[in-house]
Please model this.
Amino acid sequence: MVESKCDITLLDVTLRDGGYVNGHSWTTREAEAIVRAVGAAGVPYVEVGYLREAHQPHRPSASCPPGYLDALAAVADRPQLTVMVRPGEVPVSRIAELPGCGVSMVRVLVPGGAVATAAPYVEAARATGLAVATNLTRVSERKQDEIAAVIAACVEAGAHLVYLADSNGSLDPETVAAQVGAATAACPVPVGFHPHDNLGLAFINTKAAMAAGATAVDASIAGIGKGGGNLRLEVVVAHLIVRHGADLRLDPIAADQTTLATQLRMLADGTTKAVLTGLLDLNLDGAAEFDDLVAENGYDAALLTLSHR
Model:
């Protein structure tokens, strides 16, 4: 991990998670501007997209083709580049290409706690000298003993870092503190936290996670991201400067205009669905019943029907 005066390591997810808002339509030039701003702010890691087999020339953050990675690796004074891998979407052999494209870390998703599917990617990343993190998704749906078992399996598989992801945006500070506290007590590697802001709790949940021992945190510029969005990068940067004496800068993020159109798109999409799916602890990828109920009878009917199950 990158050394810092602050013991919290930030990872920017604007390009990857924020890409859900604009259909991953960032141009390479826009991606370069975001990487440059994040680097100037002193944030040590930037996640630049998903590594996928099918390349989409007009949506480079959706697949991270070599030319896109090469362009971002050429940005002066950039953060370390990170890519996310969902097992099954790309051959394990592609991992070996990443160091030559300037990538420093791979984050491997562990959906449903399926560590066996993630393990080959973890092993391949370690074999090429990359740092490797595993991301446990939808932890709001898991009991603490389940999370502990998955964490143990991730560490056994070789993860250098384990993230707990509040994918549904449903956690509250008390639950975050309990989950992260249990994870850090049992885990011999650092624990990170990926918050979502469906209920407006991303920042306070992140504070609870850090107090409970999390030493890595995800955030995005203006909080752009899937569902209710993410922790706002500018908020956590300011907090770490003021409260933790972090060697970070706020001005480069505040001055960058690259994400404005995507911010407006997120605002226009509204937050009602995100709030309700957060309250109901629904995974947005599997919320078809919720969408059907809303389309037919409105939000009140969906809320009452699903909350009484």
